[in-house]
Amino acid sequence: MVPALVGAATKDAKPDWIEASPKALHLDPDALAALDQQIQNGAYQKITSILIARHGQLGFERYYDEGGAAALRNTRSVTKTVTSMLTGIAIDQGHIRDVDARLLPLLARPSPPANPDPRKDAMRIEDVLTMSGPLECDDWSEHSRGNEERMYLIEDWVGFFVDLPIQGYPAWIPKPADSPYGRSFRYCTAGVTTLGQAVQNAVGMPLPEFAARHLFEPLGIQSVSWQYSPLGLAQGGGGLSLRSRDLLKLAQLYLDDGMYRHTEVVSADWVKASSTAHAQVEAAPKIDYGYLWWLLDLPLANGETIHLVAMNGTGGNTVLYVPSLDASIVVTTENYDVQGAPRLTLKLLSELVIPAIVSESH
């Protein structure tokens, strides 16, 4: 497969990015050629696309599958960060008071949840935005009652989440009070799925319609495919498919403090709050969590580290921006069954992608 070049003419590609040569954007052509060759040789398994923009201009665009630029990429949990964006827009517009708004009243459930507890009643929007709420939900533990694979087996995904029991903290699990930022992080798809329902109820329209009107259309995003629960709820926790170029727009939007072509799509305050650490995922390498954004200090081969703000999904899919380099990046993959796929993408970023973006101070 010959990779498509920046500016390549395809019937579905739209002139939605200003394009520039790698040299004009201080991207190293030799490093990009080496990156391209490694991907084609299969060194990083099944990478399907890599895009790099700098200073708001697209300088590198390659596709490694038959779908090319027109293909909708299912980047799985990258969807969670889109739900964060929609939450911020709903707050900006006054549909939700703020992140301290209680979750359960926004859900308007017909009956009280199982396992009643005052801590469940007090659960806030911020608790699900930071993956650190009071309910026992952990996708990274096959034993967790809230593991997402159990959610998919039942009809009512929101009911699945709100009926969960309160999380216990045996000696080997840090309590929130003993954790950085005062929160105990546990990756929970069901919580973000439920957040989508809360946003939908608050704005008074289906989540895909709200997204189309207030996020996708302002960005010129037209090709969209959602996944749905058995009860017809758009899945805010995963499965949204977008073109690679449109994914890149989402990273660029936050790199530009919520502005797109001189129009505010998301407030700068929400961008700042979302990209600020609220919970810790790992101590080393340092990975924190914002409002459904991953905040990573990535070690590079030269011993330096660089700060990335990322939307991540299963298989090592990532959509990110690098504030210090004024760069946005998309890596899509089909490495869903590859062990350690997220680490493989981090290796790709640290050894090939980031080093190709040359510091302009040199």
TrEMBL record:
UniProt entry keywords in alphabetical sequence: Hydrolase
Molecular function in Gene Ontology: hydrolase activity
Domain called Beta-lactamase-related: residue spans: 51-333
Listed InterPro entries: Beta-lactam-related, Beta-lactam/transpept-like, Diverse_Enzym_Activities
One of the Pfam families matching this protein, by short name: Beta-lactamase
PANTHER family in UniProt: BETA-LACTAMASE-RELATED, BETA-LACTAMASE-RELATED DOMAIN-CONTAINING PROTEIN
Name of this protein: Serine hydrolase
